[in-house]
């Protein structure tokens, strides 16, 4: 296949039967495969009898490798991008390469397939008409709470990726920031120990703290009812938003007003008062 095209190829998130016929064909036909981890992907490719030149493309070599991959494309060759699992560019490298290829008028073709976020959402039983995928929450508690506070004003189901060793602390923060809510934790999708744990945050916390949670995890939180202002304190909301100094007073007031329902001017005065106090 020698026409300059960049294929973004999804691969399975566990179960190899989720590889598509088209993905196997395209990976067998392209001139070069760019993989997040070539050794990891070699196993997948040999399972499907594909033997092909490969190059690595991961977070820390994106700029340098991106240019080399673009050069291959400029020479009229075809390249397939794959990640370790699932759809490239979704919490995985790829966006910059796609952006640069698009800017040069190089055709970019998606070869769809598994994606943990979409698979989890589809079986969650939570509203799917509107959802926000926000990747991994920050690992530090302060930033994570600010992040959750910001997310709480968005409509639809919130879909997050999380590492197993952070699941408990993230669920605790969800309860702290968003209150007792229904959540669904999808674990090890398509694999032997696949499970979907449903319940309110406390029930799910109990279920996950009974044993050591291993494996790969998606957390989903359905849209909450707009929490009446009496139950969410303006001051607590502002404190959470402003604790890391990552947000301006004006933006904090705007967000706090959306979350609590108080007017923007009232939220702004309270934010100013809080900033001028030593309480933060
Ligand atoms: N690009 C991938 C996709 O399309 O889903 C995601 C890559 S991201 C680096 C890896 C994260 O995706 C894991 O930490 C986990 O949160 C989620 N994930 C991947 N495979 C999963 C699975 N089989 N079950 C549940 N979550 C999974």
CATH superfamily of the largest domain: Tetrapyrrole methylase, N-terminal domain
Counting H and I runs of at least 4 residues, what is the number of helices?
Answer: 11
Judging by the overall fold, what is the CATH architecture of the largest domain?
A: 3-Layer(aba) Sandwich
Number of strands: 10
The distinct ligands, each listed once, are: S-adenosylmethionine
Task: Specify the oligomeric state.
Answer: single chain
Low-pLDDT parts are none
Provide a quick synopsis of the model.
Helices cover 41% and strands 17% of the residues.
How would you characterize the overall build of this protein?
The protein has 280 residues and is of the alpha/beta class. The protein has 3 domains: 6-114, Cobalt-precorrin-4 Transmethylase, domain 1; 117-221, Tetrapyrrole methylase, C-terminal domain (Methyltransferase, Cobalt-precorrin-4 Transmethylase, Domain 2); 234-279. 41% of the residues lie in helices and 17% in strands. The protein contains 11 helices and 10 strands. The strands form 2 sheets. It has a 5-stranded parallel sheet, sandwiched between helices. Helix 3 packs parallel to helix 4 (95-103) and helix 6 packs across helix 9. The longest helix is centred in the N-terminal third of the chain and has 13 residues, at 62-74. It is globular. The model has no long low-confidence stretch (mean pLDDT 91). The structure holds S-adenosylmethionine. S-adenosylmethionine (SAM) is lined by residues 13-14, 83, 85-87, 90-92, 115-117, 161-163, 186, 188-191, 216-218.
């Amino acid at each position: 296949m020698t026409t300059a095209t960049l294929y973004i190829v999804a691969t399975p998130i566990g179960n190899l039967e989720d590889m598509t016929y088209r993905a196997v064909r395209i990976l067998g036909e392209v001139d070069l495969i760019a993989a997040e981890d070539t050794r990891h992907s070699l196993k997948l490719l040999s399972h499907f009898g594909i033997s092909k030149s490969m190059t690595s493309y991961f977070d820390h070599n994106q700029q340098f490798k991106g240019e080399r991959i673009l050069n291959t494309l400029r020479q009229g060759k075809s390249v397939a991008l794959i990640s370790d699992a699932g759809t490239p560019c979704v919490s995985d490298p790829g966006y910059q390469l796609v952006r640069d290829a698009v800017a040069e008028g190089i055709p970019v073709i998606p070869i769809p397939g598994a994606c943990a976020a979409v698979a989890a959402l589809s079986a969650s039983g939570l509203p799917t008409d509107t959802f926000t995928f926000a990747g991994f929450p920050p690992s530090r508690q302060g930033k994570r709470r600010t992040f959750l506070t910001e997310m709480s004003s968005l409509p639809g189901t919130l879909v997050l990726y999380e590492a197993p060793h952070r699941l408990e602390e993230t669920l605790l923060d969800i309860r702290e920031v968003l209150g007792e809510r229904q959540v669904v934790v999808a674990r090890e999708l398509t694999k032997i120990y696949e499970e979907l744990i449903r319940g309110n945050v406390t029930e799910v916390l109990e279920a996950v703290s009974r044993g050591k949670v291993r494996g790969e995890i998606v957390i989903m939180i359905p849209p909450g009812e707009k929490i009446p202002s009496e139950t969410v304190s303006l001051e607590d909301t502002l404190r959470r938003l402003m604790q890391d100094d990552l947000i301006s007073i004006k933006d904090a007031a705007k967000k706090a007003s959306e979350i609590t329902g108080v007017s923007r001017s009232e939220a702004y005065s309270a934010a100013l008062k809080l900033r001028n106090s030593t309480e933060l």
